[in-house]
Amino acid sequence: NQTRFARIVLGFVTPKFKIHPDNITKENWKEIVPNMVDALIEVANYEIVDSEPNWSNRQAIRHALKYGLGLEISEDEGIELRISGQKPKEKSSDLHITPEQIIEAKKLLLKYYSVEDYLKFGVKTWTFVRPSTVYLIELAKMEFIDQLVEYVEGADGVKLTDDKVVSYAKFRGEKIYFYVRRVCHIEVHENKTHDDFDKYILDPEFVEPLEQFYNTRVSQRKKYLFWEDNNTKFEFKTYDKILTSSVSRDNKFFKKILSLIGFQKSDFGIYFRANYGFRHFGIQMWLIATDYNYNLVAEMSHEGTETLKKWYGKRTQKDFQRKIKGVMMN
What is the pTM of this model? Predict the structure, then answer.
């Protein structure tokens, strides 16, 4: 929100509105906000609802007023000034990507685009970091490790790796198999929340080329995985460079890729934000893999489970139907 507000007041969103933050005071903020809102609406490339800017811009303004000036905006004031605190409905809380769509995306990216685009798709999906955070991933915070995985053979030779299944098989004296898989571990810092999270990439079709890419970057003495300039300081005023170039490019590029593998604008709610789609994809992927273990997945992304459940973690219809198969009614 700080970054977004800075872009607004510094005139990066629209040159028609520019003001030094120090010139917004407790005495004049009610005169300034309407001009700011008008300027945002004039350049909006999204559907305008209730004559207000989108949620992200409204929150940026509200946070600046709250934490910068110490103002608590009432509900009536928010509506009157067109910066209400009403969040859009969580239409995309069950947004997910299917294994078939991931396979299709891999084929497209490998055949027609660069290895870096392919790896960005994998990293974004598996780590579900915020759009700009992918460029803050440091090579020093990455490691590739071998993980021993125990399993028992199920029907048709399917590998069953669930701890409870393996433990029960051991108890019964059944044969236990194992294999070694290469895993990528990344420690990520989210600037928005000032939190560090551990992320894991398990898909060998991403891990193998990612390790090769990582080794190349290390040999080139690069600091970041996807950002070229080692001397870039990711501070309040420098975020604009990332937001207006690389992140915008990613959103446009991956919107095309997601459209090609079957996604539509309506799948995302009001706005087709491909970059944030990956946040939904990754969270849902991990939730499905862990049988909706919200506490475990929250450790990789959120301080608690409330936001996770409401905005990202609604059970998919397919999984819900799977869960109720064994429910018996009297």
Answer: 0.72
